[in-house]
């Protein structure tokens, strides 16, 4: 099928979009294309996610029940674990994890395995797009060789390849997938034209760039920008605290400048599947070209040390009440890494739990979004632990309460009346209590 026939199919909305990996990125992407009347087929190794889509059961809390209900009833949407059906799709969009391994280097096993599977089913004319965050050069040096070897087809001639980073911000009420401009790099002009035409059906704007490695670098640049700026405000927080200045008041006031300043907020450390990880995809790759990555390393160092600063402030807070951390009971509020989502990947709350336990504290957590801790690779020993209940008797029973994540639905006024020792890493208590004998900013 020629390029113009493929474009016609997109315009006629008969072009089938295959999405591989139905997690925080893949599921909203599936929904976005579905809403614009494109036929979609989702693939995942995890039968639970596939069953949930088929039955209309939500598995990502902030995405809600309505969306799952619509997807499950639609005759334009299917989810399957049967990878033999990949040839049904006109495009295959890969949205699989890209974590770090134990040496803090890119772990490309998910991307490699997925690409190998795609290569076994690849047919002429298909468009393959990698959406996972990765280092510059992945598409050209890793993806295309695997696809060509497994299929016997030639990229740019027999099939199309592009890279388009996902910029999804789960739980952000102002920006969902369809409203976030999509950067696209193609392996050749035809791939770029086809990929842009596809995203144009469902996404507010496409931003074509010269090639796939530029698109890969765009995503890393965005997340390094965040990591460096978060590190800067975290450092300022510690300095200003020593000077008796409230960093939040400074940042709120600085944020009124209409140009040349962008407000970032300090916290207990970095969390989530992106900011703590993605910068190190570039440090790893930069070694190949013998370039130092000092900003990235320094930001990583400052952000990684933040949980230790929170511990120090907890020691000071308990000391104020003539108590030691050793033997105290500590309640951590918020296991998710950011407000109003259920994503606890790389959450600094886990690091805090470990550090408090090392100091002899007895630790519990409260999070309405994470009622039970799911098994994870990094913290398998916490799996199965349940959130405490939110009531006066329970909250009063803790020697210290540490706000790690400021979910909106937490009643901070109740907290102020129930606890005498609150360590606040998010400025969540600002409207609930100004009592400096009770609230200790960290
Ligand atoms: N979560 C975010 O906010 C976000 C934002 C922007 C970019 N990203 C990037 O998007 C990518 C995906 O992240 P995510 O948060 O959606 O991950 P996720 O863990 O939520 O989802 C990934 C899904 O891929 C599935 N999977 C793994 N290997 C597979 C395979 N071989 N075949 C089929 N399915 C497979 C998993 O079962 C899982 O359901 C990552 O590169 C991430 O860095 C994530």
Care to describe what's here?
The strands form 2 sheets. This protein has an 8-stranded mixed β-sheet, with helices on both faces. The longest helix has 31 residues, at 212-242. Helices cover 40% and strands 12% of the residues. The relative contact order is 0.08. Helix 1 packs parallel to helix 7 (189-200) and helix 11 (294-320) packs across helix 12. It has 2 domains: 3-212, Rossmann fold, CATH 3.40.50; 241-441, 3-Layer(aba) Sandwich (Rossmann fold). The protein has 14 helices and 13 strands. Helix 6 (138-151) links the parallel strand 5 and strand 6 (160-163). It has helices spanning 3-12, 26-35, 47-55, 65-73, 109-121, 138-151, 189-200, 212-242, 247-254, 279-288, 294-320, 348-358, 392-396, 412-418, and strands at 17-20, 40-43, 77-80, 91-94, 127-130, 160-163, 182-186, 206-209, 329-333, 362-366, 400-403, 422-424, 439-441. By secondary structure, the protein is α/β, with parallel strands linked by helices.
Q: Identify the CATH class of the largest domain.
A: Alpha Beta
- Mean pLDDT over the full residue set: 96
How does the overall form come out from the CA principal axes?
A: elongated
Sketch the major β-sheet: 8 strands, mixed
Bound molecules: nicotinamide-adenine-dinucleotide
CATH topology descriptor of the largest domain = Rossmann fold
| Helix/strand class | alpha/beta
């Amino acid at each position: 099928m020629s390029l113009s026939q493929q474009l016609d199919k997109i315009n006629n909305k008969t072009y089938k979009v295959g999405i591989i990996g139905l997690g925080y990125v893949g599921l909203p992407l599936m929904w976005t294309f579905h809403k614009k009347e494109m036929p979609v087929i989702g693939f995942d190794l995890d039968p639970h996610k596939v069953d949930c889509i088929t039955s209309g059961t939500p598995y990502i809390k902030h995405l809600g029940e309505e969306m799952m209900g619509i997807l499950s009833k639609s005759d334009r949407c299917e989810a399957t674990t049967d990878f033999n059906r990949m040839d049904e799709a006109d495009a295959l969009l890969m949205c699989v994890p890209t974590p770090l391994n134990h040496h803090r280097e890119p772990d490309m096993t998910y991307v490699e395995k997925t690409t190998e599977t795609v290569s076994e089913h690849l047919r002429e004319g298909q468009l393959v797009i990698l959406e996972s965050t990765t280092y510059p050069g992945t598409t050209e040096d890793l993806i295309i060789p695997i696809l060509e070897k497994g299929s016997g087809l030639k990229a740019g001639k027999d099939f199309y390849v592009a890279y388009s980073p996902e910029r999804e911000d789960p739980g952000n009420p102002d920006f969902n997938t369809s409203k976030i401009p999509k950067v696209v790099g193609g392996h050749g002009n035809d791939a770029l034209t086809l990929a842009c035409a596809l995203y144009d059906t469902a996404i507010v704007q496409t931003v074509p760039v010269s090639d796939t490695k530029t698109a890969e670098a765009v995503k890393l640049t965005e997340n390094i920008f965040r990591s460096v700026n978060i590190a800067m405000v975290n450092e300022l927080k510690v300095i200003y605290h020593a000077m008796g200045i409230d960093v939040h008041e400074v940042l709120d006031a600085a944020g009124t400048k209409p140009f040349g300043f962008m407000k970032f907020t300090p916290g207990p450390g970095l969390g989530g599947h992106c900011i703590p990880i993605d910068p190190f995809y570039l440090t790893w790759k930069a070694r190949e070209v013998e370039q130092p990555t000092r900003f990235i390393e320094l930001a990583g160092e400052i952000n990684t040390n933040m949980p230790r600063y929170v511990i120090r402030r907890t020691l000071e807070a308990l000391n104020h009440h003539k108590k030691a951390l050793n033997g105290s009971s500590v309640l951590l509020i918020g296991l998710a890494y950011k407000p109003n989502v259920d994503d606890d990947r790389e959450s600094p709350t886990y690091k805090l739990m470990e550090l408090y336990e090392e100091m002899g504290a007895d630790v519990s957590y409260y999070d309405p979004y994470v009622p039970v801790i799911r098994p994870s690779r990094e913290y398998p020993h916490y799996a199965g632990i349940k959130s405490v209940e939110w009531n006066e008797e329970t909250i009063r029973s803790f020697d210290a309460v540490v706000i790690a994540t400021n979910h909106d639905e937490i009643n901070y006024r109740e907290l102020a009346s129930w606890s005498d020792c609150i360590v606040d890493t998010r400025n969540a208590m600002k409207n609930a209590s100004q009592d400096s004998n009770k609230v200790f900013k960290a």
